[in-house]
């Protein structure tokens, strides 16, 4: 009888115990095909009505990551890839109700989380660690960043390459079109290229995140989980050379010069300053940079901020030569996690304290609901707790009353 009681008492305890699920080690294997353009290259107008796009091999096998992980998409997405000697072209047909499409106009790299958008990511080295990402919103706003390591949420938003993108909305949904020059990517000098590749479509009206190959929620990875982009042949890495020279002068004329002044008896002063920044590629993965007599007179001043909190504010580095260089930065991409969230989000005292205590994303989401707020996306909250929040994370972590 005591044995029977022990079994009955322990049964509910064992049944109620919660064990964290093991990381998902299943990796999807998919292949996308890039097609060399035979004829004129498409014009980047966000319409996909040029003859070149009829040659592309579009794919639509996307999978939900949010809100139902692993489920089929509720709307259709088609993506095709073309290329020529100079650039790679990405075209997308994004179906949906045009009345539900959120298309806010903003600056580049700002506010993308509030607009429906699509972005593609290339592991052009195929090292399964780094990647270059390019995206466009339904309003035609460009977004881009660099993944310095194998982490979906490790973003270097200071990466600002020269490329084109546009988007248009019609009765069936919207279209996106991108042109990314090969000069803005780094890849090996090989006759046949095989790159890592992935695509993400974010639909804020449905809180739906669609990936070609989604990284499971309980796995921290990105490039190592990508599919393959094949079909690119006969391209060569470009010689990367950027020169930014400057010339500046000033003059001062005095109305009442002092003839007895041995240094300036005429009262006239003039000076000329010359200098510049140089960036040159020394190899596929080495870049040399130099500056001579740098001048920062053209740099924007830090914005005026009224700080009513107890947290300090860290501004972005705006000097061109020093921007994006980790050895000169104290705060990563310019924002500290706690400062950014406290300043840019309207949080209650309880939510702010949870962030400072670095509590789990699920706890923060539950507290937000109890406070009458709804967390739109929680997948970027891990960087908040780690103190490495970037502007792209903040765009994803929004609270709506």
What does this protein structure show overall?
The chain has 3 domains: 31-233, Immunoglobulin-like (Sandwich), CATH 2.60.40.1190; 241-292, no CATH class; 335-400, no CATH class. The protein starts with a helix and ends with a strand. Residues 1-20, 326-346, 373-380 and 384-401 have low confidence and may be disordered. It has helices spanning 2-16, 337-344, 349-356, 361-370, 381-386, 391-396, and strands at residues 31-36, 63-66, 77-83, 87-95, 117-123, 131-137, 142-147, 164-170, 173-181, 192-203, 208-211, 227-233, 241-253, 268-283, 286-292, 374-375, 399-400. The strands form 3 sheets. Strands 1, 2, 3, 4, 5, 6, 7, 8, 9, 10, 11 and 12 form a 12-stranded mixed beta sheet that branches. A 3-stranded antiparallel beta sheet has the order 13-14-15, with no helix packed on it. The protein is an alpha+beta fold and 401 residues long. The protein is built from 6 helices and 17 strands. Strand 10 (192-203) and strand 11 (208-211) form a beta hairpin.
> How many separate helices?
6
Class from secondary-structure proportions? alpha+beta
Q: How many strand segments?
A: 17
| Percentage beta strand | 25-35%
What letter string, H or E per element, gives the SSE order?
A: HEEEEEEEEEEEEEEEHHHEHHE
Residues in helices, as a percent range: 10-25%
Q: Rg from C-alpha positions?
A: 26 Å
Give the quaternary arrangement of the chains. single chain
Major sheet characteristics: 12 strands, mixed
Point out poorly predicted stretches: 1-20, 326-346, 373-380, 384-401
CATH topology of the largest domain: Immunoglobulin-like
* Tertiary shape: globular
How many structural domains can be distinguished in the coordinates?
3
């Amino acid at each position: 009888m005591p044995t029977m009681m022990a079994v009955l008492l322990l049964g509910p305890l064992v049944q109620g115990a919660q064990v964290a699920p093991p990381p998902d080690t299943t990796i999807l294997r998919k292949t996308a095909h890039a097609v060399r353009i035979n004829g004129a290259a498409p014009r980047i107008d966000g319409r996909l009505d040029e003859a070149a796009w009829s040659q592309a091999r579009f794919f639509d096998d996307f999978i939900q990551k949010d809100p139902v992980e692993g489920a089929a998409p509720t709307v259709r997405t088609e993506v095709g890839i073309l290329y020529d000697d100079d650039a790679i072209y990405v075209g997308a047909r994004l179906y949906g109700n045009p009345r539900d499409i959120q298309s806010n106009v903003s600056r580049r790299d700002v506010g993308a989380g509030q607009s429906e958008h699509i972005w593609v990511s290339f592991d052009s080295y195929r090292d399964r660690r780094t990647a270059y990402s390019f995206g466009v919103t339904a309003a035609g706003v460009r977004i881009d960043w660099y993944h310095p390591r194998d982490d979906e949420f490790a973003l270097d938003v200071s990466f600002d390459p020269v490329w084109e993108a546009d988007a248009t909305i019609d009765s069936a949904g919207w279209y996106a079109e991108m042109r990314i020059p090969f000069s803005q990517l780094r890849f090996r000098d090989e006759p046949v290229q095989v790159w890592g590749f992935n695509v993400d479509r974010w639909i804020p009206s449905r809180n739906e995140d669609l990936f070609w190959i989604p990284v499971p929620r309980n796995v921290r990875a990105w490039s190592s989980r990508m599919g393959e982009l094949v079909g690119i042949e006969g391209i060569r890495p470009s010689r990367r050379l950027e020169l930014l020279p400057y010339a500046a002068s000033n003059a001062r004329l005095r109305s009442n010069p002092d003839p007895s002044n041995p240094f300036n008896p005429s009262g006239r002063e003039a000076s000329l300053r010359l200098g510049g920044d140089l960036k040159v590629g020394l190899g596929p993965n080495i870049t040399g940079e130099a500056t001579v007599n740098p001048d920062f007179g053209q740099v924007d001043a830090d914005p005026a901020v009224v700080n009513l909190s107890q947290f300090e504010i860290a501004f972005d580095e705006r000097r061109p030569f020093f921007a994006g260089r980790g050895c000169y930065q104290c705060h990563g991409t310019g924002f500290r996690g706690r400062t950014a969230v406290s300043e840019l989000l309207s949080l209650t005292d309880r939510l702010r304290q949870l962030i400072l205590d670095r509590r789990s994303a699920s706890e923060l989401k539950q507290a937000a609901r109890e406070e009458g707020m709804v967390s739109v996306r929680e997948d970027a909250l891990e960087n908040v707790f780690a103190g490495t929040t970037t502007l792209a994370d903040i765009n994803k972590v929004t609270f709506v009353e």
